[in-house]
Fold:
Amino acid sequence: MSNQHHLKADFLLVLVTFLAAAGWIFSKETLQGMPPILFIGTRFLLAGLVLAMLGFTEFSRLSAQAIKRSLLTGAVFAIAMMFWIMGLFNAEHVGEGAFITSMGVVLVPIMARWIFGDTPPLSTWLALPVAIAGLALLSLDNGLHLDSGQLFFLAAATVFSLHFNLNTRMAAEVPALVLTSIQLGVVGVVALTVSWRIEEWPVDVSSDIWGWLLASAIIATSLRFYLQTFAQGLAPASHAAVILTIEPIWTTLLAGWWFGETMSFVQLTGCGLIFSALLINRWQWVRLAIKGLRS
Structure:
């Protein structure tokens, strides 16, 4: 693969992380005028429909078994996203939440060990205590007590790690665009059903809130996933794995700029430890990425 393709892929992956981070801001703004589960359901249903239109011709090639497994994987994704949006709804600090959620990457091999009997690499066992130490520091402001937002983010990270394992196996048999559109649609349907049962839907939603909602659905979800799928087809796995870890950094910077959030030294240290755990966990990819840049 040419250096030009590598550079194009790296640029697109960095853009993907920025769009994902922007999605945190879009979502937090939407929550000012819409219940959280209703929002996440509407956002993902719209995003899923957009991607379904792009990959419409490929749906007819799916087997009944592939559709069933895609739907079940989507249901796991729905649980993770509902935990995530409740974390964001209750969050006192968006940037902090982004780092807690990113711990899902560290938990992926452990979940693979528990569910599928895989053997985690040594890097996972080295990364895990570092991540736990970072989480402990983030809880110090509450007297070593996680608040509701942090607990929801931690629950989301755990379920995201399960979804990542299931999704990786599904991607081998279902085209990425089709698989993504099915899962986004499932999140939408499940979340809207839950919202209908437990939330009070607003009679009127302002145009500003609709604008943030559309930005979340089209820019931070449909466009982001489409670009990520395309870029990962151009980039070595090592480059993608490392670049995608910078999402919480973008999120923290954007939250500081948009919401005026600041972090104490203890919070910065905790986030730094979690980010270090991500790099330790992906050290093999980091090493390959550095080697690729030198060659």
